[in-house]
Each structure stands twice: as structure tokens, then as C-alpha cells.
Design brief:
- It catalyses: N(2)-formyl-N(1)-(5-phospho-beta-D-ribosyl)glycinamide + L-glutamine + ATP + H2O = 2-formamido-N(1)-(5-O-phospho-beta-D-ribosyl)acetamidine + L-glutamate + ADP + phosphate + H(+).
- This is Phosphoribosylformylglycinamidine synthase subunit PurS.
- Part of the FGAM synthase complex composed of 1 PurL, 1 PurQ and 2 PurS subunits.
- With about 80 residues, the chain is an alpha+beta fold.
- The chain has one domain: Phosphoribosylformylglycinamidine synthase subunit PurS (Mth169, Chain: A).
- The protein is built from 2 helices and 3 strands.
């Protein structure tokens, strides 16, 4: 069994209005050293597959459902779960 941590974020070329709003708010609170914020999504999946198949399955899940491949990029980390 594996835990997969998935991170999805808008591509650099795509305008991020939420990120711009947070950047503006932080600057208004005198955090002027913050020059850019990008807002994304974080998900954890628990998957029962062999280590050999896990990358293929996670890529398929991300491409079909978790990320919009036109405007978002994703990355993931795989950890083996210890079953007690």
C-alpha cells in the first residue's frame, strides 16, 4: 500500500487571480518582501498497487481528474505505508 502526495498548481503562463489577491493583501500588511504567490491544491491518495504500476496509475488519475493538463502542472511523491 502506498500514500501518494499530489501537488497541483497553475502553470506559470496562466494568470492566478487568487495568488495576486493574496500577494496584494500581504503587501498591505507590510510583508513587502513577498513578491508573488501561486495558489494550488494538495491531495493525499492511498493506493493498493504494486510499486511497478503506481506511477502509471497516478499519472492517469492526475491527468483525467485531479489536474487540468491545459492550465495546470502536477507533481507527486510516493511513500510506502507501513501496515500494522
Amino acid at each position: 500500500m502506498y500514500k501518494v502526495k499530489v501537488y497541483v498548481i497553475l502553470r506559470e503562463s496562466v494568470l492566478d487571480p487568487q495568488g495576486q489577491a493574496v500577494t496584494h493583501s500581504l503587501n498591505s500588511l507590510n510583508y513587502r518582501e513577498v513578491t508573488d504567490v501561486r495558489i494550488g491544491k494538495y491531495m493525499e491518495l492511498t493506493i493498493e498497487k504494486s510499486e511497478r504500476e503506481i506511477n502509471e496509475v497516478v499519472d492517469e488519475i492526475c491527468h483525467k481528474l485531479l489536474a487540468n493538463p491545459v492550465i495546470e502542472d502536477y507533481r507527486y511523491e510516493i511513500e510506502e505505508c507501513v501496515v500494522q
